[in-house]
């Protein structure tokens, strides 16, 4: 949110929701995260003149975001999208067991902001290399 405000200009962005499972690796390598579903919502970032405009826009954006989330939930509730149920010893590879009362699928939420003027080829290549190395 602070990154959006500090940019001072309109732009574009995206919010991604990734579901993944862990694949155990042999020492000295860390576990590998393998995505089994990825949802991306693209957004336009705008600066509004006053609080009244922000309030109206906030309501509209909230309604649209709720529609998208409900759509994701409806699709994800179909059994063909879910990974196979793990054995007891592999539960930590598919579910977040750190919570006491509920064990959701492992997930990551990320966002990205870009300038509305577009990105240069150099910036795009840097981002591609950075994202590839982050895997």
TrEMBL record:
| Signal peptide feature range | none
Family matches, as InterPro entries: ATG101
Extract one GO molecular function annotation from the record.
Answer: protein kinase binding
Provide one Gene Ontology biological process annotation: autophagosome assembly
Where, per UniProt, does this protein localize? Preautophagosomal structure
From which domain of life does this come? Eukaryota
Q: Does the keyword Glycoprotein apply?
A: no
Q: Which UniProt keywords apply?
A: Autophagy
Gene Ontology CC terms: Atg1/ULK1 kinase complex; phagophore assembly site
Q: Which family does it belong to?
A: Belongs to the ATG101 family.
Q: What is this protein called?
A: Autophagy-related protein 101
Q: Which organism encodes this protein?
A: Dryobates pubescens (Downy woodpecker)
């Amino acid at each position: 949110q602070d990154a959006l405000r500090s940019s001072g200009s309109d732009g574009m962005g995206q919010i991604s929701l990734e579901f993944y499972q862990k694949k155990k690796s042999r020492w000295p390598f860390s576990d590998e995260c393998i995505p089994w579903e990825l949802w991306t919502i693209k957004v336009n970032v705008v600066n509004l003149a006053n609080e009244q405009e922000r309030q109206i826009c906030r309501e509209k954006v909230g309604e649209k975001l709720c529609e998208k989330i409900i759509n994701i939930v409806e699709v994800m509730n179909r059994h063909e999208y879910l990974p196979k149920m793990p054995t007891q010893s592999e539960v930590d590879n598919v579910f977040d067991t750190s919570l006491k009362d509920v064990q959701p699928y492992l997930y990551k939420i990320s966002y990205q902001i870009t300038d509305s003027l577009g990105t240069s080829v150099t910036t795009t290549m840097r981002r591609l290399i950075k994202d590839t190395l982050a895997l």
